[in-house]
Design a protein that fits this description.
Layout: E1 19-27, E2 37-46, E3 53-60, H1 64-71
Antiparallel strand pairs: 1-2, 2-3
Pfam family, one: DUF3577
Protein name: DUF3577 domain-containing protein
Length: about 70
């Protein structure tokens, strides 16, 4: 019998290329006990260099080192 029901499963996105951080912002959610957090939009370039397209990915910044780098 397997223990798969108790294991956490994740989908991780791994990519290579160039992207830009846009819309760096501190989100201040409403509600009791809600804590502010840092968020960004990544503008990821995709396609050939003759016809570049952007894909926009909204992300939360997690971890002290990541937050320090984004706030620079």
């Amino acid at each position: 019998m397997s223990n798969q029901a108790n294991e956490s499963q994740y989908f991780d996105l791994h990519t290579t290329g160039i992207g830009y951080l846009n819309r760096i912002r501190e989100v201040k959610p409403r509600g009791r006990g809600a804590k502010p957090f840092l968020a960004v939009t990544v503008a990821a370039l995709c396609g050939s260099k003759e016809a570049v397209e952007y894909r926009y990915i909204d992300c939360n910044v997690v971890g002290a080192e990541a937050e320090k780098l984004v706030r620079r």
